[in-house]
Amino acid sequence: MSSPKPRVGEKISPFALSLADGSGTVTVGEEKDRWTMLFVYRGRHCPRCKKFLNKLNAALADWTDLLDVVVVSADTQVKAQADKKEFGWDFDLCYGLTEEQMRALGLYVSDPLSEAETTERFAEPGAFALRPDGTLMLVDISNGPAARPDLDDLLDGMRFNIKNDRPVRGTA
């Protein structure tokens, strides 16, 4: 079951996410100097997520030249740290996304198919672009691991949107 979609063109309620490396938190939705791209992934159990996030990490310098990148799952800190160590990711990796936060973002929430997959509910993938004032500009939500935005196309589109101060679309 999905949650109500967040409304593009409106500010989201800021929420803090804990960094996997234990260095503190990142607050998504607060006013700041730069745009933010938030990527939600399913968690350590998902090989498609690793493939997607490895591509993101390979192009991270291009992304961070333009905006801040935050990646989060509902995983525990131990699982998130294991992913960061195994894959050498350089982006801000966060953990502990709550079901309330998942639903506030309009994400699909899944129960595990077995304990071999994971033991807790988790969010299906999502990507959210936020303007510096915390306004939601772009939303891409999937109900499963196979549907993801093409990172090159997404980055190209974000460059265009930011450079040309494009209005939010899909508000009707």
TrEMBL record:
Residues 6-163 form the Thioredoxin domain. SUPFAM superfamilies: Thioredoxin-like. Pfam families: AhpC-TSA. InterPro entries: AhpC/TSA, Thioredoxin-like_sf, Thioredoxin_domain. This is Peroxiredoxin. Transmembrane segments: none annotated. GO terms for molecular function: antioxidant activity; oxidoreductase activity. Gene3D superfamilies: Glutaredoxin (3.40.30.10). The lineage of its organism: Bacteria, Pseudomonadati, Pseudomonadota, Alphaproteobacteria, Rhodobacterales.
